[in-house]
Amino acid sequence: MSVVSEKILRSNGFWLAARILSSVVFVSSGLAKLLDFGGGVSEMAAAGLHPAWLFNIGTVIILLGGSALLLLDRAVWLGSLVLGFFLLLTIAVVHRFWSLPDSAGQQALYVALEHLSVVGGLMAATVASHFRKLNRHAEKDAA
């Protein structure tokens, strides 16, 4: 690996950019459900979740709380776990491709596959956060 690549990969700015980009989908959805509370409640009701207002509040807390942990690089493992579990639940509850007809099932399958890819990205962020912390501690001990 080149020296330039190594510097970029070790930089705090690159790590921050990765965390920001990884959380955009969660922050935007959480803010949308918070700022348009009625719309979020309608989404929950359409998914068959009752009481819809309570599910909307829980969703906002999960999306924004998990994102905050990821963005602040604090307990990234916990933020990733919560967000990843949330995505897996949305596949089971909302994007049930196996029970939907034709094109609706195909579209739900694509969304489910995207969710699985994001879960993998969250797992990678957890690993990266862990090893960045180990590396920082090793550098401090060596100094």
From TrEMBL:
Swiss-Prot/TrEMBL keywords: Membrane, Transmembrane, Transmembrane helix
Cellular component, GO annotation: membrane
Cellular localization per UniProt: Membrane
Pfam families with a match to the protein in the record: DoxX (PF07681)
Coiled coil, from the record: none
Keyword Transmembrane helix assigned: yes
Membrane topology per record: Multi-pass membrane protein
Top-level division of the source organism's lineage: Bacteria
InterPro entries, per the entry: DoxX (IPR032808)
Keyword Coiled coil: no
Bilayer-spanning residue ranges: 12-32, 52-72, 77-98, 110-131
Name the UniProt record assigns to this protein: DoxX family protein
Organism this protein belongs to: Lysobacter daejeonensis GH1-9
